[in-house]
Amino acid sequence: MNIDQMLGLITGILFGFLLQKGRVLRFEKQVGAMLLKDMTIFKFMLSAILVGMVGIALLKDAGIITLSHKPMNLGAVLLGGSLFGAGWAVMGFCPGTSIGALGEGRWHAMFAVAGMVAGAALYAELFPLFKTTVLTWKDFGKIGLLDVLSVSQWVIIPLFWTGTISLFFWFEKKGL
Amino acid sequence: MMKWKTKDNGWSPYLAGALVGLLAIASVYATTQWMGKSNYLGASTTFVRAAGLLERTVLPDHVAANEYFTKEKVRVDWQFMLVLGVFLGALISSATDKSFKLESIPPIWKKRFGPSIGKRAMGAFFGGIVAMVGARMADGCPSGHGLSGMMQLSVSSFVALTMFFSVGVLVAILVYGRRSL
């Protein structure tokens, strides 16, 4: 194993451990969120984002890391995002959690994994078609909020924190 | 609001999530130091590489000639091992706190569609195909867009996550009904 693979494996083990401890790997948690009954996965994701965004902003400002935005290709993100949402609801897992769910014994997740591998193969076949259609509709490039809004990240991040913490209080008040 | 343990003996999702935030920061730092490139947590590209590796065993020339496989590079890389690690981490965690459970069909699914494993397999398989085509088109899943993209304040991730969730809610309500929980 080379250093890249070793680093990936260690990070993955810790990630899987925390996903399992947060109890977010389960079908019922994912579908529960989509039925607006159980916000566990949002509490988990948003908490990760709140902490992560501060550290990443600091490391970026210090010139230690570089950002890697995914392209804001409008057609691709809108259509792809919708397809993902529809498939996610029926499957009850996302790519990362399907693998984690297998680890905690939910072996039925293997059907989801098989479907996603097939989906990836299908995408590879359809790529030439998508490249000349949906991927060309409107590409804004690899942009961040800071490129669009002319405010500092130290304005956006506190606002994001305030909004998210208020949402957390609301979740707890409503027992979601 | 803050209870460290949940009713099902897990950790508070706020705590476990915050620790994932720290892990994400440490991971970006470590990959930049040791791999020379800032890598962010993600999962869905690994499914492309897995598909390429499998397909290559029967159709090696086809995979070599495919533009998308060439673009994403079919190999066992950092993210591939990360995804394998997620399996191991979940296994270690669930085996040590006794939450490991062999389950053949999710309870909500069973309530709505009955105990047929075949039906569940079809739903998961076709749902998986649609979801992965979508994730590759949008260039990310709830890990790559939802966690990593949001942490970097990427515009595409705000839009993608909004689409994931809003369409997810709509389809979930259609498929399982509001009263199924």
Protein described:
Chain A is mainly α. Chain A has one domain. Chain A has eight helices and no strands. Chain A has helices spanning 3-21, 27-34, 40-61, 74-91, 95-103, 109-132, 145-148, 153-174. In chain A, helix 3 packs antiparallel against helix 8 (153-174) and helix 5 runs antiparallel to helix 6 (109-132). Chain A starts with a helix and ends with a helix. In chain B, helix 8 packs antiparallel against helix 9. Chain B is globular, with a radius of gyration of 19 Å. Chain B contains nine helices and no strands. The model of chain B has no long low-confidence stretch (mean pLDDT 95). By secondary structure, chain B is mainly α. The chains are: A mainly alpha (176), B mainly alpha (181). At the A-B interface, helix 1, helix 2, helix 3, helix 4 and helix 5 of A face helix 1, helix 2, helix 4, helix 5 and helix 6 of B.
Annotation keywords:
heterodimer, A: 176 residues, mainly alpha, 8 helices, B: 181 residues, globular
What integer is the average pLDDT of chain A? 96
Q: What series of H and E elements makes up the topology of chain A?
A: HHHHHHHH
Parts with pLDDT < 50 across at least 5 consecutive residues of chain A: none
Low-pLDDT stretches of chain B: none
Inertia-based shape of chain B: globular
Total strands of chain A? 0
Decide which structural class fits the backbone of chain B.
mainly alpha
Number of helices of chain B: 9
List the domain count of chain A as a whole number.
1
Oligomer: heterodimer
**Largest sheet features of chain B:** none
